[in-house]
Amino acid sequence: MSFKRNMITLAMAVAATPAMAANFGVNQANTESVNTERYECKRCTNTTGYTGEVSVSAGYNDVSDVHAGNALGTGKDGGIGAVSGDVKYQGDSGYQAQIQAHQLGMDNGFARLSGGKAGLYQFNLDYDAIKTYQAGDVESPLWHNNGMLTPSDTLNVFDLGLRREKVGLGFDYGQDFYGAFVNYSQEAKTGTKSSSLVSPSPINFGQPIDATTKQFDAGIHFSGQNWLTELSYFGSVYENHIDHLSLPYANDVYSATPDNQAHQVSLSGQYNINRTFMNGRIVTGRMIQDDNLIQMTGNPLQSWDGQVDTLDARYALTSMLTNRLRLGGSVDYSKRDNQSSSAEFAQYNFNSLTGAFRQNVPQDIERNTYKVNASYRIASGYRLQAGYDRKEVERTYSDREQTHDDSLWMKFNVRAFDNFNFNIKAQHANRSGSEYEANDLTSSEDNSLMRKYYLADRTRNAVELRMNHTPTNWLSLDVTTRYAKDEYDDTQIGLTESEDYGYDINLNMAFNQHIDGYVFAGQQWINSNQVGSQGFARPDWAADIEDEFVNLGLGASYSGLMQDKLTLGVDYLFSNSVSDTYVITDGTSPYGDYFSYNHSASLYADYAMNEQMALKITYRYERYFDTDAANVGVNDIPGMITLGDINHNYNAHQVMLSFTYKLR
Predict the structure, then answer these.
(1) Average pLDDT, stretch 55-71?
(2) Strand partners, 58
(3) From its phi and psi, is residue 20 left (phi > 0), alpha (psi between -120 and 50) or beta?
(4) May I ask which residue range the UniProt record assigns to the signal sequence (predicted)?
(5) Cys-Cys crosslink for 285: which of 264, 346, 558, 579, Cβ 3.0 to 4.6 Å?
(6) For the segment 556-570, what is each residue's pLDDT rounded down to a tens digit?
(7) Is the previous residue joined to 200 through a cis bond, with omega within 30 degrees of 0?
(8) CB-side exposure of 201: number of CA atoms within 13 Å?
(9) Which residue ranges make up each domain of the chain?
(10) How many CA atoms does the CB half-sphere of 150 hold within 13 Å?
């Protein structure tokens, strides 16, 4: 009988030969007659060269309000263009590089360049541009010129918006059990924001923004079989290029944001023993601010000489005691030691001296947070989790020096049913603390009965329900509902009650290989009650605030048209928010309107010309409307200078044609 020897036959023969019995290496096998083609991994290819795609887009914007730029990528009206792409390079010796870009040429876009050798080192160069618009064509009778706000009969027209441009450079190196990294970035902020002052009547104006933030990070890390540690440094420097603002009849009426810097050194690590994992970190830092103060009568300091020393630490442990039971816990510590200068300052009552002096008191804050939790698998697909959290905060020179928040929570997870997952979480929390000392430590303008919401006694009860259901292989449903209520039973003046509840529903459908779609809906309601005193005594008025938010959306895509070359798609989103405030004194009177709504739609057609080239045309539409009764015309209120009616009411359109080329 004749036969071809395969790999198993060769191995048996080698093992049976006395001279070769000591060497069982595969390299000793004779594979000349073995057909190895059928054992090759067809997908395990080591592609070298360039892969990815590059896209060039050109289009047209029909924009009457620059606020539309928040949704369309740019507030420019007229012709627009952008470049996007994702190109990778793989070399023969492990060298690799990647270039990513998204909407370069628009107001919002980014670019990434990275390269290096796999498992050894990598460098990266990043660029990000983000622009957000508040309002366009804002009118003000004040002109800003080298720090001087000058009134004029001619209105100054400008946009309220902020542009951020960030450039970053980084390098990572790692080999065997050690590694290091260095990152540097610089972000420039420019634009104009709304601000106000009183001199002597209220004045609203556009404040110029021109600032730079520099960030530098570096660190080294080591690792072993069951441990790792890292020592790192983080530093940032903020520089404001806008000085104090003045009026023609008064100097330095508006102080500039001061330059400042922050530095941190961090040591962190992780260690595991069998099924017990421990990790921790300790961070020490310092925040510094030493700009000159505006000099005025009664000011004893030339500069603030601000300094806050920080210390943060954390230790966490989790352990699988059995195959069913897992226990965990953590301890967090945070301290803010304010070393800033302190002096006696003359007290002002609006624009006149009172004759009294008071010393500024730098506040220190110390926090301790303790958490313990347990997870128990009752049976296959059933898990019960519970935990207890406690946060202790101590503040010097505060209305309330000590507060402690206690929270008890429980989760129940069900995964036992086919195509059905169920989670429920319940929480009960309580805050209390030391005696409230409003009479001694707050200013004379505060009512002694007032309780600040973040310091007042509070009881919170909350519940959340999550469900996922996949009745068929083409349909998936996710539902989340939640409810939370906060009660401030000991508060006579201030926030007395708050209620927050809502739901989210997501439906995903894949009807066949060519048609899929989605639908989602969500609503949230926030209702709160507060009590006040117009007569600076007992409560004599109340307010009910009702906020409602709605989000609805749907979309679908249809592929496979024209011999699988054409894909059509549509997306639609509706959002609406309403805020109603009712003030109750002798009767009930509502505040002015405050609501907004938005319709957004996108239609696209994607056509594959061949395996490498594709064309895509996209149409986007936005209908936006909002109204805030607080926004009024420039001269609507006698004695007050405003920025005018900056509410929005517009329709915006965008048409974009994109050409994409795929690299093989």
Answers:
(1) 95
(2) 81, 657
(3) alpha
(4) 1-21
(5) 264
(6) 999 989 988 999 999
(7) yes
(8) 6
(9) 1-45
(10) 9
